[in-house]
Amino acid sequence: MTKELYDLGEMPPLGHVPERMHAMTIRAERYGPPEEAFAHEIVPVPKVGPGRVLVYTMTAGINYNNVWAALGRPADVIAARRKLGEPEDYHVGGSDGAGIVWAVGEGVTGLEVGDHVILSPGDWDERSDDIRQGRDPAASRSMRAWGYESNHGSFGQFCLVRDVQCHPKPEHLTWEVAGGFLAAAATAHRQLFGWQPHTVRPGDPVLVWGGAGSLGAFATQLVRNAGGRAVAVVSTEEKARVCRDLGAVGTILRTEFDHWGRVPEDDDPAYRHWADGVRAFGRRFWEELGERRSPRIVFEHSGADTLPTSLYLCDNEGMVVTCGATSGYRSDIDLRFLWMRLKRLQGSHFATTADCRIVTDLVARGLLDPCVSSVVGFDEIGTAHQEMHDNVHPWGNRVARVNALG
Ligand code: NDP
């Protein structure tokens, strides 16, 4: 017998799509602290259009996208979607996840109902004109970060993706691992290996901000795997230990410095404090590395607080590669360091499908620790985002159980 609504963890007959589902939603009237913005609601199961795949969600990764969605800034994701003609006045987030293919839309090939898949957040249209002209999909006009810029993410009992977002789940990975690593691992992989000639080479010094965070934990390991030498920046001794276990050759506690943020004008007496701070930080980098070499690659995502230091410290002809701005997206760039020393500031957004397959294979073969350090219940999704916002969350990656009840 089929039903209109199933409990979480109660599996409908394979392929039967119920009318309604459980979801953790965000609504505009609740925008603000994530623990208040999220609520458990019953909403319609999304319809499966051409090229789309409906997935019975087993687990969902917690990542920063839905901290931003909950806050309603810097973008109001619900208003942005409604402008595009999508009617829902609620947002079901979740940009990382794993589950079972439940229905496929017209034109989908290579996927069948019952397949176990890992979902990537790269929601772009492979048939869009700019991609056909050779534009990188991450920069395509059709690109949206799934479960952030688009609706029906993994915080719903069923989620809706494009076929290009589905990657086969290696059989031996648990649902908790499968749903928790891809967005960060693939993003970190692209940052470190996607921007020729600035890819990690054996011996290269690399500065990794937030070395025990979701992105940073992968960056630290990927640098080690390539023979590079990561010095990880963190805010606690415990996280420093994690980074050393993951292969960092050194660690720096950012709490020992206070020159972060905007750079004062040269004639402002405060400039001396900034310059002393950044030089001391640089000396500390050399001490941790064990030699006087500057980072050939700086792995950025922390934003306004750290970017001036990143650009200063980066080696001549080196690259600062960034995919985010946790501490703020308006930052100071002293252009003299950029042009006089031939440095490169590279933006990097998510990853290619090849990056997704590479990191999944590394995890499957035990060469990349997925760093899933904790698992939370469905109703703890709001609290988990609040802890991430407050930077008091556990190291690595956090996963929420959706239909996989353990
Ligand atoms: P996490 O919270 O897991 O890790 C970020 C780490 O950054 C924290 O562990 C913290 O480490 C450090 N950090 C926080 N605030 C500061 C600060 N003011 N200065 C220096 N370090 C700081 O987040 P993620 O790794 O998942 O994501 C990081 C950022 O990257 C987010 O802004 C996210 O939106 C973005 N992102 C972008 C992607 C893209 O495709 N464009 C993909 C994935 C993430 P500690 O306190 O130990 O220093």
CATH topology of the largest domain: Quinone Oxidoreductase, Chain A, domain 1
Strand proportion: 15-25%
Total of DSSP H or I helical runs spanning 4+ residues: 13
Name the CATH superfamily assignment of the largest domain.
Medium-chain alcohol dehydrogenases, catalytic domain
Shape: globular
Give the terminus-to-terminus CA distance: 25 Å
Protein name: Crotonyl-CoA carboxylase/reductase
Pfam families: ADH_N (PF08240), ADH_zinc_N (PF00107)
GO molecular function: oxidoreductase activity
Keywords: NADP, Oxidoreductase
How would you describe this structure to a colleague?
There is one protein chain. This protein has 406 residues and is α/β, with parallel strands linked by helices. It has two domains: 20-181 and 370-401, Quinone Oxidoreductase, Chain A, domain 1; 185-347, Rossmann fold, CATH 3.40.50. It has 13 helices and 18 strands. Strands 3, 5, 6, 9, 10, 17 and 18 form a seven-stranded mixed β-sheet that branches. Strand 11 (205-208), helix 7 and strand 12 form a beta-alpha-beta unit. The protein is globular and about 70 Å long. It binds NADPH dihydro-nicotinamide-adenine-dinucleotide phosphate. NADPH dihydro-nicotinamide-adenine-dinucleotide phosphate is lined by residues 63-64, 183-184, 187, 209-210, 212-216, 233-235, 239, 254, 301-302, 305-306, 323-327, 349-350, 388, 391.
Question: Notable features of this structure?
Answer:
single chain; 406 residues; alpha/beta; Quinone Oxidoreductase, Chain A, domain 1; Rossmann fold; seven-stranded mixed beta sheet; six-stranded parallel beta sheet; 18 strands; 28% helix; binds NADPH dihydro-nicotinamide-adenine-dinucleotide phosphate
